[in-house]
Amino acid sequence: MTERPVLKVETSTRDGGAIVVRPQGDIGYHEAPAFRAAIREAYDKKPTMLIADLSGVAYMATPGLATLVEALQIAKKTSVRLVLCGMNERVRAIFEIARLHTVFTIVNTVEDVAAK
Q1: Rounded distance, CA 107 to CA 87, Å?
Q2: b/e 25-38 (16+ beta carbons within 10 angstroms → b)
Q3: pLDDT tens digit string along 61-109?
Q4: Rounded to 5 degrees, what are φ and ψ at 24?
Q5: Which of 17, 34, 42, 53 is the most exposed place for a label (fewest CB within 10 A)?
Q6: Domain limits of the chain?
Q7: DSSP letter string over 29-97?
Q8: 114: helix, coil or strand?
């Protein structure tokens, strides 16, 4: 049985107190808990905004979507803006099929966040 690679999640802070969370790899059933933990840890730091840079994610399954929906719920409760960016066509299609593109703020790049 081959071992699945562990999801790497980098976080960084931008000027103004925004935190960028950058997962690297597919987000399936086994990887979603690490992604969820990174997002919760970022919210614990009380950012002014949370940016999920998905440019390093080739594929996202239902648990990844659920993690982001949970992040959106936390964002609404804490009045912290959540922005998603860097989606490839495959990940964006998953959001569109689930109609989640209508509830999230989605931009192309981290640099585009300031414009939204």
Answers
A1: 8
A2: bbbeeebbebbbeb
A3: 999 999 999 999 999 999 999 999 999 999 999 999 999 999 999 999 9
A4: -125, 105
A5: 17
A6: 8-115
A7: TTTHHHHHHHHHHHHHT--SEEEEE-TT-S-B-HHHHHHHHHHHHHHHHHT-EEEEE---HHHHHHHHH
A8: helix
DSSP single-letter state for residue 103: T
For domain 8-115, the CATH architecture is 2-Layer Sandwich (3.30)
SS (H, E, C) 2-34: CCCCCCEEEEEECCCCEEEEEEECCECCCCHHH
104: DSSP letter: S
Instruction: Retrieve residue 66's tokens.
Output: 């659920």
> pLDDT for 98-109, tens place per residue?
999 999 999 999
Cα distance between the two ends of the chain: 45
Amino acid at 67: T
Average pLDDT over residues 15-19: 91
